Amino acid sequence: EVDGGERGVHAFLHVNTEEALAVAREVDAARAAGGDDAAALHPLAGVPIAIKDLIVTVGQPTTAGSRILEGWMSPYDATVIKKIRAAKLPILGKTNLDEFAMGSSTEHSAFGPTRNPWDLDRIPGGSGGGSAAAVAAFEAPLALGTDTGGSIRQPGAVTGTVGVKPTYGAVSRYGAIAMASSLDQIGPVSRTVLDSALLQELVGGHDPFDSTSLTDPFDTLVAAARAGAAGGGLEGLRIGVVKELGGEGFQAGVETRFHEALELLKGAGAQVVEVSCPNFKYALGAYYLIMPSEVSSNLAKFDGVRYGLRVLPQDGPMTIERVMGATRAAGFGDEAKRRIILGTYALSAGYYDAYYGSAQKVRTLIQRDFDNAFAQADVLISPTAPTTAFPLGEKLDDPLAMYLNDVATIPANLAGVPGLSLPGGLAEEDGLPVGIQLLAPAREDARLYRVGAALE
Ligand code: GLN
Fold first, then answer.
1. What is the CATH number of domain 6-279+366-455?
2. pLDDT in tens, 198-220
3. Residue 72 has what pLDDT?
4. Active site residue: 109, 131, 151, 213, which one?
C-alpha cells in the first residue's frame, strides 16, 4: 500500500461494509423468492454505490472533507439518499473530496489526497476525486457527486469515467452541504452513460424540501440513453463546437481526441457547426466572485456551536466570538479560508456593486451566449478539461493555475444548463484519459444521454 488504503487510491473516507452487505442480502433474498417482491425491485437494486462525503447520511459520518465537521453525524438523510435506500442500492461508504467541494484535485481534503487509479502520482480531479476514483478503480460501479463548477465532470474526464451535472433543479439539493447554492447540483458518476441515466432518473425529480427544485418530469433519460446506444437519433442533429473552449491552454493530445469525437459524430450523420460564445472568457472571473460570495455566507453556520468541532480559546475571555474564531481557525483549511475572505470582501459595503453586481451581469451575458448557441445547435461540445491528470502537488501552491482547470465546465453552472462528460480515449503523449463534454439547453438532459450513449 502507498498510503490511505485501497492500494493507495484512498477514494473512501468511510466504508460501510455491514450495512451495505445487509441491503445486498435483502435484495438477494427478494430475487430468490421471486414473485411480487422480486418484480417490484428497482433495476439498480443491489448495485453498490459510493457517496461523495458532502451529502448527508444517517448512521455514517459526513465530513465535507473538513476538520470542522469531523465526528459529526447527520440526524437526517439527503433526499437523494432516501431514494437510494428506498431502491435498495447498498451504500458502500463516503468518498473523499476537496474541503467543502472547493478544488480541482482533491488535494484540499483535510484527510489526505485521493490518487488517480491510472497513475498514483497524479490527481483524480476535484472536488469529487473520491467518487470518480472509486468508479475508475472498480471499487464501486456507481457514485454520486456534486458539481458547482465542474466537480463531477472534471474528475470524470481525468479518470476515464462518466459524470453528469444535471439541469439546475433537476435533482434535489436537500441534504447536500451547500457550497454555492445557485450553482450546486448533485449528479451521477458511472462507467457508462446508461448507468448515469439510470441513477439520475432514480435520484432526480421534484422535491418540496428544495425550493429551487423543478417540477418537470425527468423520466425519459434511460429511454434516451438506450436509443442513443442503439445508434438512433444523430442523423441531422446539429452539434456546436464552442470556439472559445479550445486552442490556447488545451493540451495537444486532448485536442486530438476531441477532433476524433467530432469525426465520429459526423460519421453517424450529425452536422458539426462552429458556434461562438464571446462572453465565456469572463466566466471564470465571474464564477470566482459569485462562488466565494455564496461560500462565505453558507459557511458562516460552522460556528463551533451548532456542528462538529468546538475549539475553546486557551487564554483570555471566553466570548462567543473568540470560540468561533478559535474553532474556525483550527477547523478550516487554507482554501476554505481563502474563499471565505474573498467572498466576504466581494460582498462588503462599497464593493458589492463593483464585484458581485458586475459578476451577476456577466452571468446574464453567459446565459445569452448559451441562448444564441442553442439557436444554432442542439448540443454543444468541448473538451471537459484543458489537460489530462496533472501530478500531485503541481498546482497546490498556485490557486490561479488550479482554477484554470474549470474554464470549460463553469459556464454550464453559471447558466444552469446540464453537462455530461464521457471518456474520449487516451492522450497520445501521456496515455491518460481525455474527457469530452456535451452541453444541452436547460431541461434537455435526455438529449445529453442520447448523444453521449451514441458517442460511447
Ligand atoms: N474546481 C471548482 C472550484 O474549485 C469546482 C468546485 C465544484 O464544482 N464543487 O470551485
1. 3.90.1300.10
2. 999 999 999 999 999 999 999 99
3. 94
4. 151
Cell numbers 436547460 correspond to: 442
Kindly tell me if the per-residue pLDDT of 1 is higher than 90. no
Residue bearing cell 481563502 = 338
Q: Cα(27)–Cα(86) distance, rounded to whole angstroms?
A: 12
Question: Residue 442: CB partners within 8 Å, gap ≥ 6?
Answer: 167, 168, 415, 416, 417, 418
Cell, residue 24: 445486498
Residue 102, φ and ψ in degrees, nearest 5: -105, 100
253-274 confidence digits (pLDDT tens): 999 999 999 999 999 999 999 9
For the CA of 128, the nearest atom of ligand 1: 9
Pocket lining: 149 vs ligand 1, CB cutoff 6 Å? yes
Answer yes or no: are the C-beta atoms of 92 and 57 closer than 8 Å.
no
State yes or no: ipTM above 0.90: yes
Give residue 406 CA to ligand 1 midpoint distance, Å.
7
Retrieve residue 130's grid coordinates. Answer: 473520491
What are 111-161's pLDDT values in tens digits? Answer: 999 999 999 999 999 999 999 999 999 999 999 999 999 999 999 999 999
pLDDT band at 71 (very low <50, low <70, confident <90, very high): confident
Which residues, in sequence order, are CB contacts of 14 under 8 Å at separation 6+?
Answer: 53, 60, 61, 93, 94
Q: Is 297 annotated as catalytic? A: no
Q: Which atom of ligand 1 is nearest to the CA of 154?
A: 1
- Tell me, yes or no, if 276 is annotated catalytic: no
Q: What is the pLDDT of residues 357-372, one digit of tens each?
A: 999 999 999 999 999 9
**How far is the C-alpha of 292 from the C-alpha of 347, rounded, in Å?**
9
Q: Catalytic: which of 74, 105, 109, 127?
A: 127
Ligand 1 in reach of 61 Cβ (< 6 A): no
Is residue 2 predicted with pLDDT exceeding 50?
no
Q: Whose CA is nearest to atom 10 of ligand 1?
A: 102
Q: How far apart are CA 178 and CA 55, in angstroms?
A: 9
Q: Are 241 and 275 in contact (CB under 8 A)?
A: yes
Cβ of 156 closer than 6 Å to ligand 1, yes or no, is no
- 185 ligand 1 Cβ < 6 A: no
**Pocket perturbation via mutation, ligand 1, pick of 55, 109, 127, 410 by most ligand atoms within 8 A of CB:** 127
Binned at pLDDT 50, 70 and 90, residue 399 comes out as confident
- How many Å lie between the centroid of ligand 1 and the Cα of residue 360? 18
Question: Would the CB of 413 count as within 6 Å of ligand 1?
Answer: no
Whole-number pLDDT of residue 6: 87
